[in-house]
Structure formats: structure tokens, C-alpha cells
């Protein structure tokens, strides 16, 4: 009887420790806030966050249903300004027997339309068969082919051209057995013009570029994931993305996993990445640079182990980050989403000083 009671107590304790994936935002003792989003399917990955202005609503997209699996779908969750709970993830793009992956959101402030781009290939097929598709809100249009070249993949944020009239879309090529993976950009001078492809020379094994505009000028800096598990690399363009320098390594390690950079209001660049070499995807770290990405003096780990099990080091990867025009009741305005053990998408909110004080 005593043993039965003890086992029941242990079971109830474990049950109460299960994390609810309900989208509710909670305050942490370290000054940040967090939430676990509510996914529509199992196996969730590759989230992306975007702000819709002037409402301030946050949109988060990710793929749900298993990488390269048939019927893997794109889900979207929203957080309205002032709300303390994300909406449940809703499937907005799905195709029978196909795998939809790597969503990228882009908010067009002029037309007030939220655009969604993602890849698509038959389930169980390799990445070299993927194409890129496009749909848009408010009631979500029917997805249409955007870029039909096989092996075309997206991951990171679309930015405006310097004159604000066009767009620059960072992309990459995924090949058979990854023997010819490299990066390129798609560029259009206006939203009604044709997209032009510009390959980034000698970017072999460097993929998923994330773009930053330096000093509000024509100069762009791209940071890359390294499939050789070595370093985050960077390349520069001095003519708004028309030509690029040969990529060079930064001082930041890379584990062949996605990174994302963003320019803060202060002018600092914040980078979210896994701070290690090798194949592990922990810790997930944010770092700050005040010299356009040459040095990174401030680091803070965002996730090292599971929240409900300090002895389990899982996968915390594929981050997406931005700073909003508003702050929450916690005085935080930097928003980060990432894969949490591929069970769900986790949301963290903090500010620039929070990163600095993590040293």
C-alpha cells in the first residue's frame, strides 16, 4: 500500500510538471517572458516571426507534421497587441502527400497584406526537389508557385531595397547529398517587377543567408550557416545586393544549423544561434554586436536544457528574432521564437539590457 501511494505521488508530480502548450505568456524570474505555442500537429520546426503594423500584432509561422513527411503543413499563430496569449496554431497551407517547410513571413505595410513564402516537395523526397510557394492573408489565398527552380529554399527575412521600392529575398540551393549547396538572393526593383537571381560566389556549403543593412546605406551584410560545422560566415554587398564579396568566417561558431540576425533600434546587431560546433543544437544563444558584426562582446544563453527536466539537453534551434515598436508589461521588446525539441515552438521576450546582463 505504501509503495502504491509512493508511485502514485511520483506520477502525479510528473504529470503536474508537464508543460502546457497553450500559448499563454508567463514571466520568468530573470526578467524575460515566455510561452509555448499550441501546434496543430506533432513534430514542429522552423518558426518565423513578423510584426504587422500599425496594429503591432505578431504573426508566427512554422511547419507542423514532420520534416519531409507527407502532409507536413504550415501553421500560423497570432499575438495581438496587449494580449497575453497566442492564438492556437492554424494550418494555412497544406497539400496532400506534399511536405511544406521553411515559412518566411513578410508584412507589406503599404497594402496591409501579410505574405507567406514556403518550400514544398513530395513527402519523403529529398530537399533538391523542393520549390518555393507563396500565399497571402487576410483570409489566406490559395498557394501558388513562386519560384519553380528545383532545390530552391528560403529561411530568413526579406528586406527592402535601399530606395524602399523593391525587395531582397535571401535564398539557397539544396542539392543531392548536399554536394552543391550554396546561397543566392532574389531581387526585385518593385513589387510588380520580375525577380532576378544573383548567386553569391564561393558560398559553397554556406546556406540560409540572413541579411542586415549597415548604417542605413547601400551596404548589406549577409551571415551564413556553415554545413561544415565550423563558423558563421559573412559576405558584404556595397551596391544593395547586386554583387557580393567572398564569404569570410566570423568569430561565432556554427553547428550546421540556422541563424538569424536583426538590427535593433540602438543600431546594435543581435544574432540568435547555437553557440557551439558539432551536431548538438544546444545551447541557443543571443549575442550583440556594436560594430556591424565584427565583434560580439555580449552573449546570453536563452535555452540550455528542457524547462521541466534540467538533466535533459534537447534541441533548441532555427531561431527567428525581431524588435517591435511596442514593449510588453515586462518592458521587453525583443521577440524570439524557436523549435523546442520539435514538440512545439517556444516564444521568448526580453530587451537589449537583458542580453548584456547575461555575461
Automatic annotation (TrEMBL):
Signal peptide: 1-17
Pfam families xref list: BNR_2
Domain Sialidase: 56-325
Superkingdom as given in the UniProt entry: Eukaryota
Keyword field: Signal
PANTHER family linked to this entry: BNR/ASP-BOX REPEAT FAMILY PROTEIN, BNR_ASP-BOX REPEAT FAMILY PROTEIN
Name the record gives this protein: Sialidase domain-containing protein
Species assigned in the record: Rotaria sordida
Upper taxonomic lineage: Eukaryota, Metazoa, Spiralia, Gnathifera, Rotifera
Amino acid at each position: 500500500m505504501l509503495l502504491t501511494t509512493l508511485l502514485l505521488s511520483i506520477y502525479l508530480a510528473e504529470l503536474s510538471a508537464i508543460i502546457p502548450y497553450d500559448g499563454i505568456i508567463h514571466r520568468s524570474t530573470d526578467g524575460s517572458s515566455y510561452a509555448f505555442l499550441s501546434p496543430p500537429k506533432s513534430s514542429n520546426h522552423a518558426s518565423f516571426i513578423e510584426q504587422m503594423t500599425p496594429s503591432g500584432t505578431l504573426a508566427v509561422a512554422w511547419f507542423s507534421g514532420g520534416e519531409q513527411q507527407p502532409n507536413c503543413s504550415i501553421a500560423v499563430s497570432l499575438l495581438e497587441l496587449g494580449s497575453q496569449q497566442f492564438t492556437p496554431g492554424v494550418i494555412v497551407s497544406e497539400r496532400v502527400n506534399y511536405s511544406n517547410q521553411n515559412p518566411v513571413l513578410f508584412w507589406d505595410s503599404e497594402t496591409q497584406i501579410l505574405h507567406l513564402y514556403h518550400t514544398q516537395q513530395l513527402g519523403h523526397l529529398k530537399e533538391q526537389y523542393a520549390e518555393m510557394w507563396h500565399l497571402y492573408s487576410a483570409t489566406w489565398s490559395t498557394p501558388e508557385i513562386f519560384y519553380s527552380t528545383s532545390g530552391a529554399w528560403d529561411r530568413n527575412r526579406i528586406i527592402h531595397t535601399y530606395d524602399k521600392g523593391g525587395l531582397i529575398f535571401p535564398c539557397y540551393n539544396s542539392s543531392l547529398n548536399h554536394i552543391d549547396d550554396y546561397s543566392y538572393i532574389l531581387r526585385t526593383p518593385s513589387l510588380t517587377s520580375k525577380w532576378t537571381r544573383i548567386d553569391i560566389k564561393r558560398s559553397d556549403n554556406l546556406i540560409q543567408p540572413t541579411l542586415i543593412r549597415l548604417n542605413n546605406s547601400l551596404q548589406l551584410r549577409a551571415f551564413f550557416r556553415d554545413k561544415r560545422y565550423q563558423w558563421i560566415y559573412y559576405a558584404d554587398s556595397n551596391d544593395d545586393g547586386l554583387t557580393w564579396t567572398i564569404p569570410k568566417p566570423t568569430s561565432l561558431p556554427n553547428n550546421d544549423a540556422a541563424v538569424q540576425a536583426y538590427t535593433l533600434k540602438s543600431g546594435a546587431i543581435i544574432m540568435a544561434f547555437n553557440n557551439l560546433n558539432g551536431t548538438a543544437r544546444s545551447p541557443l544563444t543571443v549575442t550583440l554586436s556594436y560594430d556591424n558584426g565584427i565583434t560580439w562582446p555580449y552573449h546570453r544563453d536563452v535555452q540550455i536544457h528542457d524547462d521541466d527536466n534540467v538533466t535533459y539537453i534537447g534541441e533548441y534551434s532555427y531561431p527567428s528574432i525581431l524588435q517591435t515598436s511596442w514593449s510588453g508589461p515586462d518592458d521587453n521588446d525583443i521577440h524570439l521564437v524557436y523549435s523546442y525539441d520539435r514538440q512545439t515552438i517556444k516564444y521568448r521576450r526580453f530587451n537589449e539590457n537583458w542580453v548584456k546582463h547575461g555575461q
